[in-house]
Amino acid sequence: MADPKPDGESESLDVFWMQRALELADRAAQLGEVPIGAVLVKDDCSIGEGWNSPISSHDPTAHAEINALRDAARRIGNYRLLDTTLYVTVEPCVMCAGAIIHARVKTVVYGAREPKTGAAGSAFNLLDAPQHNHVLCIRHGLLANESAARLHTFFRTRR
User: Fold this and answer.
1) Counting C-beta atoms within 10 Å of the first and last residue's C-beta, which end of the chain has fewer, N or C?
2) What's the gap between Cα 96 and its chain centre?
3) pLDDT (tens digit, 9 = 90+) per residue, 141-150?
4) Which amino acids are annotated catalytic?
């Protein structure tokens, strides 16, 4: 797993982790999967990483976010992922949003919006719904153009 550059500034750390998520998105694309990557960070260290793999794993739940959450939960030995930040290249879907909430992730930072299925305000507002007993912080737009470009390139070559 990658470790942050020692510059210590929060904004540059956010960029660092989102760039790592973009690298994982590239891994998904190389496998013929939709290019989405995710990194779960705690105390400035990666504790879980994932990329989309539902096609290759024959698992409809194998989205980048779910894979990163599973990786982290195994590593720390707990399904509660308290005080963590999830960096993901594309806005989470409803399934991933539910898993993020149940895992008690503290912050979600995502790149590109997903207008058809995004659950952080684009199509649905599940991550920010007041009915939940867990409130998390959501930030969007970090390296959004880079994230969207990967999706456009991927789907352009598939059509």
Assistant:
1) C
2) 9
3) 999 999 999 9
4) 65
